[in-house]
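Design a sequence for this backbone.
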């Protein structure tokens, strides 16, 4: 992305003529990209940048089952939740306070918890969320469905081991 004002000043373009030609080239698709913002804060974002950014987000999200909003911000996506809701509108992720979790990850964790409930055993969910850094994220995520999953005859306990804060353990009693 490039500030439009810096193009104008760097090359000494006449501002009104530049904007007229610039917008015409974009609308006719002779210049692939779009302009974000207005006036001195207007930024030209090349289409290849947007496609590469989207491909990276898709790849990370599909491989890991989540994406942090901070990561999206570092990529230049200012409203991560809105972006993800719009991009994954057919299969929206669960929006937590600092990240979005893919439905596939939710299904995997639900299946593990359901099996532990049936077997009356432990399930260690190595959340692979070492990037998420906050165990509270995992607990708020798990709370959203575990309350619905626990049958009247079972109680689900939640604990976090001090030696491995990214490991969440469950035991039915």
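Sequence:
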């Amino acid at each position: 992305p490039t500030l439009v004002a810096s193009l104008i000043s760097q090359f000494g373009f006449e501002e009104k003529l530049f904007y007229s030609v610039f917008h015409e080239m974009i609308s006719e698709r002779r210049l692939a990209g779009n302009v974000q913002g207005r006036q001195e804060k207007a930024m030209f974002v090349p289409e290849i940048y947007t496609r590469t950014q989207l491909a990276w987000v898709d790849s990370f999200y599909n491989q890991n089952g989540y994406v942090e909003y901070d990561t999206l911000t570092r990529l230049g996506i200012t409203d991560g939740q809105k972006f993800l809701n719009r991009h994954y509108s057919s299969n929206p992720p669960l929006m937590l306070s600092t990240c979005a979790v893919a439905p596939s990850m939710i299904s995997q964790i639900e299946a593990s918890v359901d099996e532990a409930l049936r077997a009356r055993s432990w399930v260690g969910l190595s959340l692979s969320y070492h990037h998420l850094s906050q165990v509270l994220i995992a607990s708020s995520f798990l709370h959203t469905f575990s309350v619905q999953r626990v049958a009247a005859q079972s109680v689900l306990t939640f604990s976090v081991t001090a030696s491995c804060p990214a490991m969440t353990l469950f035991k039915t009693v």
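The chain is about 50% helix and 20% strand.
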